[in-house]
What does this fold into?
Amino acid sequence: MMNRRQLLGAGAAGATLVSSQAWGKTLNMGLPEAAHMDSAATAVTARPSTGVDYTPVVTLNGWTLPYRMNNGVKEFHLVAEPVERELADGMIAHLWGYNGQSTGPTIEAVEGDRVRIYVTNKLPENTSVHWHGLILPSGMDGVVGLSHPGIKPGKTFVYEFDLTKSGTFMYHPHADEMVQMAMGMMGMFVVHPKDPTFMPVDRDFLIMLNAFDIDPGTYVPRVMTMNDFNLWTWNSRIFPDIDPLVVNKGARVRVRVGNLTMTNHPIHMHGYDFKVTCTDGGWVPESAQWPEVSIDIPVGAMRAYEFTADHLGDWAIHCHKSHHTMNAMGHDVPTFIGVDKSQLTPKMRSFKPGYMPMGTAGMGDMGKMSMELPENTIPMMNGWGKHGPIEMGGMFSVVKVRDGIAPDDYSDPGWYDNPPGEEAYEWTGELPEFATNNSPKTILTPKPTQKG
Ligand SMILES: [Cu+2]
It folds into this structure.
């Protein structure tokens, strides 16, 4: 049995136990400062200048939690608190999160590190932090009531454990979980391999899939919603304001995607095929990596994939559930495709001036409409590209592969100029007769012979 002092010191880099002198020093350092972020911009972390080298992950529209070293232990300070998150330009959500934002900051460390994570609760109810996928002592697992008592409002708890394996993990409360996760409390925990030659990449992007149900004109998510969310977000951000994944041609790229929503999300990336290289259970051996162009991310799971960025261009990356690439909307809208509203429109306008007939030719036109919106919402699809409205929202972004992107430059290079002869165009010449299926020649299935 280890006593408390031994437990706290064990596993620190280069030492199994700390002296009582060092322990005194540890206590004297007090709580690490809790970093705070007030912006939804993507913050890029500098490459480590000491210790094991790794390519820091880039959390789209997120940031990485700073740490301090204390006698060989990496110390972090998470603060669970109410936050105001800019989901998109023109839409603020009143959420619960960590250190000023939802999703919470990404925690980054190295295999073999010992981490000490202080968690301060500024919420009005108990919380805890569960370290999803990490191998750790039972009492550090963060299930309130099971692993340890809840962290009461105003209190600070300390979690401390060794990072025994590298990979991609998540953190979230295991206390009033339905409410606290619906309010936006979650983050990712990346452990880099201690061997820098193990599966190195040039760019390493991180996306947490989450979802909210916030009525237009309101600010606080409905916490009882089970399936019918109206905002499908990456790192608590919606398209068109999710930053692009900017990549230099030829770079080796990893994308890590975690899912803490209530449904699966098939994440589809255009222009490439790629291999699934990691789950939250660990790295997939090369012989077992499988090719995909869409990866289904199950609920409560993480999938990472890798590719070499050989194809220049602007490539869509999005959830393939089409309702998840839409922003707030009602679903109880009748389908009007093919309906002639020319008789109806004047009648409607007689009691509702400005009535617009919509949906008779599909709903794509909504992408370029600028209608007056209720307070605090954004159109259901309003991203614009070089060639017009992209007709998407929600879980959508663009992978921008270019020549000449500097190693530390993640800034948006603008839209891609397709080379001559490499862009679809309008045909203005004569059209040949269309083939139709009216001809019996095209019907290969023999007619059933009548019996009897
Ligand atoms: Cu989805």
